[in-house]
Amino acid sequence: MATGVDERPVRIVDAPLAPPAENLGLLSVFKRRYLLKLLVQREISGRYSNSILGVFWSYINPLTQFCVYWLFMGKIMGADKGMEYYPIHLFAGLVIVHFFTETFGAGTRSLLGNKGLLKKMAMPKEMFPVASMLVSLYHLVPATLILIVVCVLSGWTPTWEAVPSLLLALGIVMALGTALALVFSLANVFFRDFGSAVNIVTNYIRFGVPMMYPFSMIVDFLGDKSWIYLLNPISDAVLLFQQAFWIGVTKDPEATAAKHLPDNLWMWGLGAFGASLVLLVIAQVIFSKYENKIPERLT
Cβ–Cβ contacts within 10 Å for residue 26, how many? Predict the structure, then answer.
């Protein structure tokens, strides 16, 4: 006779509670590549929504900055004296610096800017700074294409160092920019002042790297202590980018490199890349330690 009571055994799992999204840090981000792709597409489409020119702003912004720097620093201040193809030297530095500053700035704002998604969906919170870096990488492509076209029209003769220099420069900025974006996006959730502080810092970065002036000017000023200047990974990335493009358009690439590039640039570049990876690991550890407190701070 049926009693109406479900007598099936109840299985009890003796395991600690775990969040619905596994916490593997940056590995979790790339395991969810489809979601990362959607976030990147959402950011790009949102940035150019209700815009007449749309993605063409990716070309206009770097060209506008180039014209300003070339006019004031190159012509008025005379930074282009004694330098072949100074505009290409300037633009090569500007492209990689803009990639870093955009990654750093947008990454810092990424958690606050997506607090609606963070409250509704279980996903790796590192997803947002990484997506900001990839959006910045997307914007890097148009400026790099312009640079390549200008170099070709100027009689560019690529050296064997061009592609490795390009890839190493990008690797430095991607690793360092993402590391700083992780830490500062977290800090910006707890203290909103960090968003404004990043804007101030990025204003000084453009003057602290050999973009508007050659590295040889630093050597003349600092002498044997010029190696201190190369401790800045962004300076190394700029010099590598200039080695990839600017050196190849000059009449005597070897002589230009000897005069305007530091000795052992490859050693400095690889060291900067290694240091950036170490910083990325440290940033991930810091982010993982405090990320559980992010939702309560987004109210």
Answer: 20
Is the whole-model pTM more than 0.70?
yes
CA distance 101 to 30: 23
pLDDT in tens, 2-36: 555 556 665 655 555 555 555 667 778 878 888 88
Q: Which residues contact 118 (CB under 8 A, 6 or more apart)?
A: 111, 125, 128, 294, 295, 298
Q: Half-sphere exposure of residue 8, counting CA atoms within 13 Å on the CB side?
A: 4
Inter-residue contact 234 to 205 (CB < 8 Å):
yes
Residue 173: which of 262, 247, 249, 277 has the closest Cα? Answer: 277
What does the pLDDT read at residue 53? 63
Residue 242 Cα distances to 18, 26, 93, 225, 286, angstroms: 48, 31, 7, 22, 34
Calpha distance 138→212 (Å, rounded): 24
149 vs 37: CA distance, rounded Å? 29
Contact at 8 Å (CB) between 128 and 39? Answer: yes
